[in-house]
Amino acid sequence: MNRLEQALAYVSQRKSLWFKTLLTGIALYLLWQIALFTLLVLSAENRPFLLRAVLQTLEIILVLILVKRIVRAGPTAPEIFERRYLAATWVLFGLWLCVMVPMGFEIRDPYLYGTANFDPYQHLVIPMITGFRGYLFAVWLMCGIATLVLYGVKKRWADVDEVLLPLVCHLIFTGILILVRLGPDRTKTAMIGWNQAVFFLIGAVAFGIIISPAVRERLMNFADRYPYILLIITIALIGGTFFFGTALSGGRKLWYRVGPLTIQPIEISKILFVYVVAAFLEKKAYTFQKSRRLSSLISLGVMCLSLFLVLLLQKDLGPIMVLVIVCLWMFVSVSGRIDLLATALLAIGTVIGLAFWFKQPSMVYHRIMDFVDPLQYSSQMTYALWTQASGDLWGTALGMSRAYKVPVIESDYIFTAILAEKGWIGAAVVLTVFWAFSIRGIQLARFLVKGHSRDATFMMGVVMVLFVQQVVIVAGNLNMLPLSGLTLPFVSAGGSSLVVNLGVLALMLGLVARHTRPAQITETGQVKSIPMPIAAANPTRVEPEFEPSVRDDEMVLGGRAFRAGSAVKPGGHA
Amino acid sequence: MNPHEERGELSGYHWLIPLFSMTGVTLLLLAGAFRNSVLDPFSQNYIEDFAHQRNFETFVEQGLLVDNGHNGVKADWDAFYRYTRSAFKLGQQVAAFEQASAAGALQGVTLKTLPGTWQPLVKKRLLSEQDGQLVLNGEAYHQRMLKTTFGRHFLMAANNTHRLINQAGRISADEFYFRETNVFSVTRVLPRGAVYDRHNQLIVGWDKGRRERSGLHEGVFHVVGLPYRSGIEQKMEKALAPKPHRGLHDLAGLRGRDRRGDDLQLTVDSELSAKLYDMFDFEKKGRLKGAVVLMDIESGHLLASVSSNAPHGETVRGNYDALVRDRKHKPLLNRAWDELHFPGSTYKTVVAAAMLEQEALTQPFKRVQEKRTYLKIRNNRNKVRKKPIDMRTAFAVSSNTYFAEKGVLLGHHTADMAGRLGFNSACDLTLGVKDAKPWITATSSAYRGQQQVRFDKRGDHRLVAQFSLGQNQIKSHPLHMATLIATVANDGVFVDPRLIKGRRRGTLVTETHNPAAFSQLQYGETRRVLDSTTARYLRQACRGTMNMERGTGFYGPQIYRGTVDGQPIYSSAKRGSKAAEFVLIPSAGKTGTAQHGQKGKPPHSWFIGYAPADNPKVAVAVVVEYAGYGSLYALPIGMEALAGGLNSLNQEPHSLAGETEQVAAESSPDF
User: Fold this and answer.
1) Is A25 a domain residue?
2) How much is the ipTM here?
């Protein structure tokens, strides 16, 4: 028996009155402290903060469950899982929106409360809304409808994956939640939030259109046949802004104005360009891998540079950064040529270095200096850093931060707002969601590679575009990279961005659905694919007019993606 | 040939590459977000620019917003324009123009013949000519005023008067400002701790989200300093800085967890410092540069450390660059311990101490005839006295010839003594203070010049003689000289100087009163550097300076003790100028007149001393640059400081705000 045990035995054997009194005293003191803490927690001024902590915790749990589903699917059937977690995300969003936001406003702005004035925004009148609560409720309902639409069309036409949709909805809801209440002038940002909700609905419809087999197949076949027309469209869209563009901010003409809407063509061009590059790479994969001939490399370089040059003339550096990274990634993953990667990185580094040294274009210099010493060079970044610091671990509760003081908080700096209002925990949830989304995307790409490597490369490119864009803008916000004007996908304000990103999601799901066939589960739990024409097997699918580019006997379902229970619905249409 | 079939297959594991890289990048981003939000690396740079907030306060203070009769306010535009006519330059000019034209002074003057003083009005197109008359365009002036920040804010307030009333029904400019204006301010500008003087008078506090510096007058400026830049504010950053992270509250993310930084109680006496700062204005010579350091002998507390030419704390905001660039006055230079001067005759204290230790060699108590040997050294204008003198007399009359000779006799012994008395080593004012950064003073130097001194070499004897008078290679600063004379007064025991007396926990942000009392910090470390006997003889010598008929300080001001309400009050006055009920308190010390070798400028004036001579309580060192004789310039300041220091030690501290409510204020035990 060692010393400690001896001491414990001695203590437990003592039965004197003094000893009991001492123990009772300690216990009473602890109880008293607990009671104090409980009272403090329940006091009125702490209520919003308590609620915030509860909601954040629920959010964490929800996201962790989704992540777990990606790693290994549980016994829950995919459609039940998807339905359940879409609903949970939406309900949680409702709690944030309809309970938490008014609470924050009551504290921050008791005088304005309840008298929203939408007069300056006559072009999108909300007639039924009488007060701010009503407005929030309407936003919530509208998001619910959009989510329903998303879920419905996906279930009907591309029933392949059960986590992407809840993840994306989580992101969109977070964005709307932040946007709805960002402004110093509530009316203005309330309108930004409202617009975002409206575009969510529009995006859901666009999602439905793109994911429908008729459109999807036509699109893919068109792209198959005329990849270079896509390239021309891409460059023309960007180049057109020189002539028809509108400058919304910063004096750069990066938008098209169509009636009340403004569209940023780069959002669409990015995806088209990635497709073109993917197609080209796959076509020349053999050349890249096995031969030292330069001609293909040169044509690839010319293709990339033609777009980058136009973007450079536009002084739109963010997309260049994203596209360069994504193209390099795709190139290396197709060709496996590390030597060329190193050469390219060296060249890029030299170009950036020269641009910095000669201050030409001056934007490079300024962005880099803003990054190196934000407090000296960039008031915007300074404000952003201060705002982020006000967030701390749990964030100021919603509506309590001064994020609205940061210029363009609603698009470029939305991550700053999240960090300020939901704290590091909320930001970590958002980052985790992006991570999960990308991981899932890579899983799907891996699944596709067995069927059709061009589609797989494209899929990977698309996922990488979203991921890299998110990384670049978040790192820019955090002053870990020079900031460049990009939107945080699905989160930032911006109708065109949201709609296009939803379209991209539709394309991703459509690509997978295109190469998936219903499966059968045998009694031993083994899955067999049914060697039948796709249309006959799946009555919900529309017969494509063109023959799919994949031959049936090539189809082998990917091991991992399949085990995740995502690609194939067990017990499908037998 | 189908390229798809020919292409090489990569290993199945290459799919791990994107997974790992994405995970890695996401983890990096998480770490970055953690750094920016929780660790908060830029917290030191939060702006405190609340100048605009002052506009709203002005509206309320100046009565530009008035009661509208039914529980609200309204903007008084007349009052606004009236106010702009007195507060802004343009407005003043407009008012002057109106006055002049009303008085008929501008009769018959056209735009072309208008005097140049009115040209700004013409340039801003406020004046026009109609029928040969100059007409002021009032509307244009009003428009112009509305375009200033002040005007814009007033317009904003006028259009939103209902929001200026807070829930308690009062006009609240602050809340309005924070809600409505576009000036950025962070939610987390947390309060720093306050700094009090030894009698609990507030020097710097925290008010309305910014440092309150009205108490940071010139006398204490260099001690307290500016946050992150200088002084206590910099050295005690860790104690004064707000403490945002505390236990359970923080984990739960609750409000009200933010805590003020700790409050500090300094050893300096704010009132006395202000008085001493003003002492550097001399009747004949005007304002002179210099410094005083006053020290409590027993504890080592600095009762005052004043450097002339310091700025007032309230004027520093927005003016800092100009202060840095002011090469002429160097207002940010703390002359008390960051600038070195030749100590001149005050250095004879060191020589005398060395003589007393080497009694057999130098025979200090034997009266000797002064010799001519080293008379021709530079800086020596003394003539040889006819009567033989001993060390104490020579010290009192400050005989250069005597000490030059003895210094040469002593040789390297003086250097050893100088080292023991703190030359050639810097002093750390915050040694052993919890949470403090080291506060290192300038290093006073002796025998450390470019030229190597050979004490035994005959050729170098003139140099050594010069050193013995505190010239050439000997340099020191008032703080060091104060510790030196305090050591002598304290029976040869050196006490580390201290600036911080007490410290207490800060309150929560929401609370206004801090009921805690200051817990007292320990005194500085002590060490014996002189023999008790040596110190006693030195004290006799020092006493002679002020009290012997021939002593250099005899005809200077002396300290007198009077009585008010049974309390002793000390003051300094010329010998014999006080009434009979005032008792002369003998003081002691050494004056110095340090020549610096710059032509055409009077020498630096020095005084080091202590009082009372019999029972030393406070010690002082004064330097006045380019003034003249030590007894004429430094001595009056030194005597004033000594008298003030004696008063200060007797004075009861003020009660702190809120302390009366709390009967038994507990001191926090961990400091």
Assistant:
1) no
2) 0.82
